Amino acid sequence: MTAPSTDMPIDTIPMTPFALISGSAQWGLRFPDDVLEPGVSVRERGLRFQTPWGVSENWQVIEVSGEGTPDGEPRRILNVFAHGWPIDSIDHEAFRKVAWILQEAGVQKILADSTSGSLNKMLKPGDFIIPFDVLDVSQTRYSLSGKMTAACQSTQLFCPQLAGLLQDTAEELWPQPHRVVGQDQQLVFAHNWGPRFGSRAEANAYRIMGADAMNHSTGAEASLAREIGACYVAASFIVRWQDGILDTPPADSSDLHAGLRHSASRISLRTMIRTSLTQSCGCHQLRTLTAREDVRFAQGERGGTC
After folding, report:
1. Domain count of the chain?
2. Is 45 among the domain residues?
3. What is the pLDDT of residue 2?
4. Which CA distances in Å does 148 have to 60, 103, 297?
Protein backbone atom coordinates (compact mmCIF):
# COMPACT_ATOMS: atom_id res chain seq x y z
CA MET A 1 0.00 0.00 0.00
CA THR A 2 1.31 3.45 -0.90
CA ALA A 3 2.14 5.71 2.03
CA PRO A 4 0.02 8.88 2.21
CA SER A 5 1.57 12.06 0.90
CA THR A 6 3.23 14.26 3.49
CA ASP A 7 1.83 17.39 1.82
CA MET A 8 -1.81 16.43 2.48
CA PRO A 9 -3.71 19.12 4.42
CA ILE A 10 -4.06 19.05 8.20
CA ASP A 11 -7.62 19.27 9.51
CA THR A 12 -9.02 21.15 12.50
CA ILE A 13 -9.97 18.89 15.40
CA PRO A 14 -13.77 18.97 15.81
CA MET A 15 -15.33 19.40 19.23
CA THR A 16 -17.49 16.58 20.61
CA PRO A 17 -17.80 14.73 23.93
CA PHE A 18 -18.10 11.30 22.26
CA ALA A 19 -15.39 9.11 20.72
CA LEU A 20 -15.24 5.60 19.31
CA ILE A 21 -11.84 4.00 18.78
CA SER A 22 -12.22 1.32 16.12
CA GLY A 23 -10.06 -1.76 16.41
CA SER A 24 -9.75 -5.24 14.99
CA ALA A 25 -13.37 -6.04 15.89
CA GLN A 26 -14.32 -3.93 12.85
CA TRP A 27 -11.60 -5.00 10.42
CA GLY A 28 -12.96 -5.91 7.00
CA LEU A 29 -15.93 -3.54 7.29
CA ARG A 30 -16.54 -0.05 5.97
CA PHE A 31 -17.59 1.49 9.25
CA PRO A 32 -20.23 2.65 10.00
CA ASP A 33 -21.73 2.24 6.51
CA ASP A 34 -21.79 -1.57 6.54
CA VAL A 35 -23.52 -1.67 9.92
CA LEU A 36 -26.66 -0.07 8.42
CA GLU A 37 -27.65 1.57 11.72
CA PRO A 38 -30.68 3.89 11.24
CA GLY A 39 -29.99 7.60 11.58
CA VAL A 40 -26.20 7.22 11.27
CA SER A 41 -24.08 8.83 8.56
CA VAL A 42 -20.52 10.02 8.04
CA ARG A 43 -20.14 13.79 8.08
CA GLU A 44 -16.40 13.88 7.26
CA ARG A 45 -13.91 11.17 6.25
CA GLY A 46 -10.16 10.91 5.87
CA LEU A 47 -9.27 13.51 8.49
CA ARG A 48 -5.65 14.10 9.57
CA PHE A 49 -4.71 15.90 12.78
CA GLN A 50 -1.41 17.34 13.95
CA THR A 51 -0.19 16.39 17.44
CA PRO A 52 3.01 17.17 19.39
CA TRP A 53 4.30 13.74 18.27
CA GLY A 54 3.39 13.98 14.61
CA VAL A 55 0.35 13.53 12.39
CA SER A 56 -2.46 11.10 13.21
CA GLU A 57 -4.53 9.86 10.26
CA ASN A 58 -7.65 7.85 9.38
CA TRP A 59 -10.17 9.84 11.40
CA GLN A 60 -13.80 10.55 10.63
CA VAL A 61 -16.81 12.27 12.19
CA ILE A 62 -19.94 10.13 12.52
CA GLU A 63 -23.24 12.01 12.69
CA VAL A 64 -26.17 10.52 14.60
CA SER A 65 -29.77 11.72 14.45
CA GLY A 66 -31.70 12.22 17.68
CA GLU A 67 -33.28 8.79 17.27
CA GLY A 68 -31.92 6.60 20.04
CA THR A 69 -29.97 9.26 21.97
CA PRO A 70 -31.04 9.69 25.61
CA ASP A 71 -31.87 13.39 25.17
CA GLY A 72 -33.38 13.06 21.69
CA GLU A 73 -30.74 15.41 20.31
CA PRO A 74 -28.39 14.66 17.38
CA ARG A 75 -24.74 14.07 18.22
CA ARG A 76 -21.36 13.64 16.56
CA ILE A 77 -18.92 10.86 17.38
CA LEU A 78 -15.21 11.24 16.66
CA ASN A 79 -13.91 7.96 15.24
CA VAL A 80 -10.42 6.69 14.41
CA PHE A 81 -9.51 3.52 12.54
CA ALA A 82 -7.33 0.75 14.01
CA HIS A 83 -6.53 2.53 17.30
CA GLY A 84 -4.76 5.26 15.29
CA TRP A 85 -2.01 2.88 14.16
CA PRO A 86 -0.36 3.97 10.90
CA ILE A 87 -0.88 1.58 8.00
CA ASP A 88 2.73 1.51 6.80
CA SER A 89 4.79 1.44 10.01
CA ILE A 90 4.91 0.43 13.69
CA ASP A 91 4.35 3.48 15.88
CA HIS A 92 3.44 3.00 19.54
CA GLU A 93 3.26 6.81 19.82
CA ALA A 94 -0.11 6.39 18.07
CA PHE A 95 -1.84 5.82 21.41
CA ARG A 96 -0.89 9.18 22.88
CA LYS A 97 -1.50 10.93 19.58
CA VAL A 98 -5.06 9.64 19.75
CA ALA A 99 -5.45 10.57 23.43
CA TRP A 100 -4.12 14.08 22.80
CA ILE A 101 -6.61 14.57 19.96
CA LEU A 102 -9.49 13.34 22.12
CA GLN A 103 -8.43 15.72 24.88
CA GLU A 104 -8.31 18.64 22.43
CA ALA A 105 -11.77 17.67 21.14
CA GLY A 106 -13.23 17.79 24.64
CA VAL A 107 -14.13 14.09 24.64
CA GLN A 108 -15.69 12.78 27.85
CA LYS A 109 -16.90 9.31 26.81
CA ILE A 110 -14.69 6.79 24.96
CA LEU A 111 -15.45 3.29 23.74
CA ALA A 112 -12.70 1.23 22.11
CA ASP A 113 -13.44 -2.07 20.43
CA SER A 114 -10.99 -4.87 19.71
CA THR A 115 -10.42 -8.59 19.55
CA SER A 116 -8.39 -10.49 22.09
CA GLY A 117 -6.73 -13.79 22.96
CA SER A 118 -7.88 -15.83 25.93
CA LEU A 119 -5.55 -16.70 28.82
CA ASN A 120 -8.38 -18.35 30.72
CA LYS A 121 -9.67 -21.78 29.69
CA MET A 122 -13.15 -20.68 30.71
CA LEU A 123 -13.16 -17.83 28.14
CA LYS A 124 -13.91 -19.27 24.72
CA PRO A 125 -13.55 -17.90 21.20
CA GLY A 126 -16.75 -16.00 20.48
CA ASP A 127 -17.18 -14.66 24.01
CA PHE A 128 -17.88 -10.91 24.17
CA ILE A 129 -15.93 -9.56 27.14
CA ILE A 130 -15.87 -6.28 29.06
CA PRO A 131 -12.69 -5.92 31.15
CA PHE A 132 -12.56 -4.72 34.72
CA ASP A 133 -8.82 -4.08 35.15
CA VAL A 134 -5.49 -3.97 33.33
CA LEU A 135 -2.15 -5.73 33.76
CA ASP A 136 0.45 -3.61 31.98
CA VAL A 137 3.96 -4.26 33.25
CA SER A 138 5.33 -1.53 30.97
CA GLN A 139 3.20 1.07 32.79
CA THR A 140 2.55 2.81 29.48
CA ARG A 141 5.73 4.55 28.41
CA TYR A 142 3.79 6.83 26.12
CA SER A 143 2.20 9.10 28.72
CA LEU A 144 0.82 12.47 27.67
CA SER A 145 2.73 14.19 30.49
CA GLY A 146 6.06 12.72 29.41
CA LYS A 147 7.48 13.05 32.92
CA MET A 148 7.44 11.31 36.27
CA THR A 149 6.42 14.41 38.22
CA ALA A 150 2.73 13.73 37.62
CA ALA A 151 0.59 10.66 38.21
CA CYS A 152 -3.10 9.80 38.13
CA GLN A 153 -5.19 7.23 39.95
CA SER A 154 -5.88 3.78 38.53
CA THR A 155 -8.52 2.50 40.92
CA GLN A 156 -11.15 2.63 38.15
CA LEU A 157 -9.59 2.44 34.71
CA PHE A 158 -12.87 1.35 33.11
CA CYS A 159 -16.06 3.35 33.57
CA PRO A 160 -18.71 1.25 35.37
CA GLN A 161 -21.58 3.28 33.89
CA LEU A 162 -20.36 2.82 30.33
CA ALA A 163 -19.57 -0.84 31.04
CA GLY A 164 -23.12 -1.45 32.27
CA LEU A 165 -24.62 0.17 29.19
CA LEU A 166 -22.26 -1.79 26.96
CA GLN A 167 -23.26 -5.05 28.65
CA ASP A 168 -26.98 -4.30 28.25
CA THR A 169 -26.46 -3.51 24.57
CA ALA A 170 -24.32 -6.60 23.99
CA GLU A 171 -26.83 -8.89 25.68
CA GLU A 172 -29.44 -7.52 23.30
CA LEU A 173 -27.36 -7.91 20.11
CA TRP A 174 -24.61 -10.54 20.58
CA PRO A 175 -25.57 -13.73 18.74
CA GLN A 176 -26.14 -16.93 20.69
CA PRO A 177 -24.75 -19.37 21.66
CA HIS A 178 -21.83 -16.99 22.29
CA ARG A 179 -21.71 -15.39 25.73
CA VAL A 180 -21.47 -11.85 27.09
CA VAL A 181 -19.13 -11.60 30.09
CA GLY A 182 -19.53 -8.34 32.00
CA GLN A 183 -17.61 -6.45 34.65
CA ASP A 184 -19.16 -8.50 37.44
CA GLN A 185 -16.66 -11.23 36.51
CA GLN A 186 -13.77 -8.77 37.03
CA LEU A 187 -11.79 -9.85 33.99
CA VAL A 188 -8.20 -8.59 33.76
CA PHE A 189 -6.66 -7.60 30.41
CA ALA A 190 -2.92 -7.94 29.88
CA HIS A 191 -1.21 -5.55 27.48
CA ASN A 192 1.18 -6.82 24.82
CA TRP A 193 2.62 -4.11 22.56
CA GLY A 194 2.76 -6.26 19.44
CA PRO A 195 2.76 -6.65 16.52
CA ARG A 196 3.46 -10.30 17.30
CA PHE A 197 1.19 -12.34 19.54
CA GLY A 198 2.45 -13.18 23.02
CA SER A 199 4.77 -16.15 23.31
CA ARG A 200 3.84 -19.30 25.22
CA ALA A 201 6.04 -18.17 28.11
CA GLU A 202 4.51 -14.69 28.15
CA ALA A 203 0.99 -16.09 28.06
CA ASN A 204 1.77 -18.42 30.96
CA ALA A 205 3.35 -15.58 32.96
CA TYR A 206 0.36 -13.28 32.45
CA ARG A 207 -2.00 -16.11 33.37
CA ILE A 208 -0.11 -16.78 36.61
CA MET A 209 -0.23 -13.05 37.42
CA GLY A 210 -4.01 -13.08 37.07
CA ALA A 211 -4.77 -11.96 33.53
CA ASP A 212 -7.74 -13.47 31.67
CA ALA A 213 -7.14 -12.12 28.15
CA MET A 214 -4.64 -9.99 26.27
CA ASN A 215 -4.37 -7.73 23.24
CA HIS A 216 -2.30 -4.90 21.77
CA SER A 217 -4.37 -1.86 22.73
CA THR A 218 -6.57 -1.89 25.83
CA GLY A 219 -3.89 -1.30 28.48
CA ALA A 220 -2.42 1.76 26.79
CA GLU A 221 -5.80 3.28 25.97
CA ALA A 222 -7.18 2.79 29.48
CA SER A 223 -4.20 4.56 31.06
CA LEU A 224 -4.32 7.48 28.63
CA ALA A 225 -8.08 7.88 29.00
CA ARG A 226 -7.54 8.23 32.74
CA GLU A 227 -4.87 10.91 32.07
CA ILE A 228 -7.36 13.05 30.14
CA GLY A 229 -10.15 12.51 32.69
CA ALA A 230 -12.48 10.70 30.28
CA CYS A 231 -14.75 7.72 30.87
CA TYR A 232 -13.43 4.69 29.00
CA VAL A 233 -14.75 1.22 28.27
CA ALA A 234 -13.33 -1.60 26.17
CA ALA A 235 -15.54 -3.84 24.04
CA SER A 236 -13.73 -6.96 22.90
CA PHE A 237 -14.41 -10.47 21.73
CA ILE A 238 -12.22 -13.53 22.01
CA VAL A 239 -10.96 -14.87 18.67
CA ARG A 240 -8.42 -17.45 19.91
CA TRP A 241 -6.74 -18.95 22.93
CA GLN A 242 -3.25 -17.61 23.38
CA ASP A 243 -0.44 -19.97 22.45
CA GLY A 244 0.28 -22.39 25.30
CA ILE A 245 -3.08 -22.09 27.05
CA LEU A 246 -4.41 -25.26 25.43
CA ASP A 247 -2.47 -28.32 24.39
CA THR A 248 -3.69 -28.01 20.81
CA PRO A 249 -2.49 -25.43 18.23
CA PRO A 250 -4.72 -22.31 17.91
CA ALA A 251 -7.46 -22.70 15.31
CA ASP A 252 -7.87 -20.30 12.41
CA SER A 253 -10.13 -17.44 13.59
CA SER A 254 -10.99 -15.93 10.19
CA ASP A 255 -14.51 -17.38 9.92
CA LEU A 256 -15.32 -16.59 13.55
CA HIS A 257 -14.22 -12.98 13.12
CA ALA A 258 -16.11 -12.54 9.86
CA GLY A 259 -19.26 -13.90 11.48
CA LEU A 260 -19.13 -11.60 14.52
CA ARG A 261 -17.66 -8.30 13.30
CA HIS A 262 -21.02 -6.84 12.23
CA SER A 263 -22.56 -7.56 15.63
CA ALA A 264 -19.53 -6.22 17.47
CA SER A 265 -19.52 -3.02 15.41
CA ARG A 266 -23.25 -2.48 15.93
CA ILE A 267 -22.85 -2.94 19.70
CA SER A 268 -20.07 -0.33 19.83
CA LEU A 269 -21.99 2.17 17.74
CA ARG A 270 -25.29 1.73 19.53
CA THR A 271 -23.62 2.03 22.94
CA MET A 272 -22.17 5.41 21.96
CA ILE A 273 -25.55 6.51 20.63
CA ARG A 274 -27.23 5.56 23.91
CA THR A 275 -24.70 6.88 26.41
CA SER A 276 -25.36 10.05 28.37
CA LEU A 277 -22.90 12.61 29.69
CA THR A 278 -23.51 11.73 33.32
CA GLN A 279 -20.54 12.03 35.66
CA SER A 280 -22.07 9.97 38.45
CA CYS A 281 -19.45 7.29 37.73
CA GLY A 282 -16.75 9.56 39.20
CA CYS A 283 -14.20 8.86 36.45
CA HIS A 284 -13.47 12.56 35.92
CA GLN A 285 -12.37 12.90 39.56
CA LEU A 286 -9.66 10.25 39.16
CA ARG A 287 -7.53 12.48 36.95
CA THR A 288 -5.99 14.00 40.10
CA LEU A 289 -2.37 14.83 39.30
CA THR A 290 0.07 14.31 42.12
CA ALA A 291 2.95 16.77 42.13
CA ARG A 292 5.84 14.54 43.15
CA GLU A 293 8.04 17.58 43.68
CA ASP A 294 6.24 17.72 47.04
CA VAL A 295 8.19 14.62 48.06
CA ARG A 296 11.30 16.81 47.75
CA PHE A 297 12.91 14.88 44.95
CA ALA A 298 14.45 18.12 43.65
CA GLN A 299 18.20 18.09 43.35
CA GLY A 300 18.60 20.97 45.77
CA GLU A 301 16.79 19.11 48.54
CA ARG A 302 18.60 15.83 48.02
CA GLY A 303 22.06 17.18 47.39
CA GLY A 304 22.20 15.22 44.11
CA THR A 305 20.14 13.57 41.45
CA CYS A 306 17.58 10.92 42.37
Report:
1. 1
2. yes
3. 40
4. 33, 20, 11
CATH number of the domain within which 67 lies: 3.40.50.1580
Nearest 5°: the CA angle 165, 128, 98 is 70
Q: State mean pLDDT over 222-237.
A: 94
Helix (H, G, I), strand (E, B) or coil at 78: strand
CB-CB contact of 164 with 132 (8 Å): no
The residue-averaged pLDDT of 155-165 equals 95
Average pLDDT over residues 275-283: 93
pLDDT at 150: 55
Q: Is residue 49 part of a domain?
A: yes
- Give me the sign of the Cα torsion angle 300, 301, 302, 303: positive
Residue range 141-152: mean pLDDT, rounded: 69
pLDDT: which is higher, 199 or 48: 48
Angstrom distance (rounded) from CA 292 to CA 125: 44
Domain extent at residue 179 = 18-299
Q: Is 238 in contact with 123 (CB distance < 8 Å)?
A: yes
- 99 near 224, Cβ under 8 Å? yes
Three-state secondary-structure class, residue 260: helix
Q: Is 239 inside a domain boundary?
A: yes
Label residue 8 exposed, middle or buried (CB < 10 Å: 0-12, 13-18, 19+): exposed
176 domain residue, yes or no: yes
Instruction: Give me the residues paired with residue 191 across strands.
Output: 215
Cβ contacts of 247 within 8 Å, gap of 6 or more: none
